[in-house]
Specification:
Helix 4 crosses helix 5. The protein has two domains: 80 residues; 61 residues, no CATH class. It is elongated and about 125 Å long. The chain has six helices and no strands. The longest helix has 74 residues. With 155 residues, it is mainly α.
Length: 155
């Protein structure tokens, strides 16, 4: 009798196990099918988006060349070196106070408008007497107004 009960229990467990196994296998196969379909749809969407991107990039290149041609025909001649330099300067970021003072200091020294000692004194007094090295040198009477204008025009 015990053997019969044990046989029935084992049979029920095995049948249940097979049933559960077949359900899990069926569920996995269904999900794999859905994932394959979703992957295929995503692949088609990606191909469409990439084709649209290429089309937009081509149109952008075409429009950029039209703009270049329009600018060229408007000017009729290529820009001179001075015009090109001015255009490049307009695109540069503004100088910081330190960069501005460094350039002005180099100009004053290079053009022999001040000596190293005068420049050192003026540099120490920036902010106390003047806002920059040229204004400070002007207020200390190291340079005249015409030299100050020339220095600022050198920037």
């Amino acid at each position: 009798m015990e053997f019969a009960v044990l046989f029935v229990v084992i049979s029920v467990v095995l049948v249940s196990g097979f049933a559960i196994h077949s359900r899990i296998k069926s569920w996995i196969e269904d999900n794999e099918e859905r994932l394959a379909q979703a992957e295929e749809e995503a692949s088609h969407m990606l191909a469409g988006i990439l084709a649209e991107k290429r089309e937009i990039e081509g149109r952008l290149a075409e429009l950029e060349s039209q703009i270049s041609l329009a600018a060229w025909s408007k000017a009729d001649t290529p820009p001179t070196a001075a015009e090109a330099a001015k255009a490049a300067a307009r695109q540069r970021p503004p100088l910081t106070a330190e960069e501005r003072n460094a350039r002005l200091s180099r100009w004053l020294l290079k053009n022999n408008k001040v000596n190293l000692e005068q420049l050192g004194k003026a540099s120490r007094l920036i902010g106390q007497i003047g806002n920059d090295v040229v204004e400070t040198c002007l207020l200390l009477h190291f340079i005249d107004a015409e030299t100050a204008r020339a220095a600022f025009n050198s920037l």
